[in-house]
Design brief:
Length: 323
Amino acid sequence: MAQKAPTKNRRELAPVLAFDLGGTKVAVGVVNSRGRILDEIRVPTVFQEGKDAVIRQLSELGQGFLDRYPRIKYVGVASAGPLDPAKGILLDPTNFSSREGKKWGTVPLAKLLSTRLKRKVFLENDAAAAVLAEHWIGAAKGYRNAIILTLGTGLGTGMICENELVRAGRGQHPEGGHVILDFNDSSAPCGCGNIGCAEAYLSGRSFTRRARVRLGREDLDAKAIADLARAGDPKFLELFDEYSRVMAVAIHNYVVLYAPEIVIFTGSFANTADLFLEKTRKQLLQLLARRRQGVDLLPKLALSRLENNAGLIGGALVALRGK
């Protein structure tokens, strides 16, 4: 069920502590009942040191805020998945691994953090949290049907249909980033173990890895690639042309499943939208040409109004409203 804006009651009066845990960085902040971030820190996550070190890092960062804001009673964690939000358990997250490549397995993250922070902790998929935040106070406000694509270490997808957050069966979250687009493309390995997933093309990390391999340039990062494309280098412009085509195909697939009125882009790689968004829109117009009669399924494509804070604000909303 979709999260609604907090109502005025005692619980609303105190801010909440929120985490946005991604595959590279973690954001931690104090958020009030209107979605305003009062205090925040973003740091690289110590994944290389293993899951115990990451949980310790989260606990220490959170405790620092609790010491400064003792009125906080509730904690929300938006995390990359897969995960079980009802049970507060991570289910071997795709992009979480240690230096030795050891996977996390099943981790009762909400319980572990609750024990350490002595507060009730709510867990939610980061893309689900992000689309809830956008629906609350961001770019999806006023829309009954919306999708968010989080472009970072992975590709997260969050969907709202008829004002309700979409869940998959058995309490799972729809992992749209792992819809396979080309199972025969060995150049697109995905962290989930398959090849050709949407995430293997469209996440910032995957895009950068593919560019390095194609151009034989291990020195490149996403910013350098984008800067060279903006400077007009045809090799780098072609990378974004391909990205635009694949993005349009992925969005087409999500549109015929969920019929969103708006698709929102967030995450660090969304900063390159000037290089792919308009081309994606044109490609999508062609792909949906027969889907515009009666009900026009061509969605608006938009950047997040919450900048890179959608996951953090969404995590706070989950804590504000509870499960």
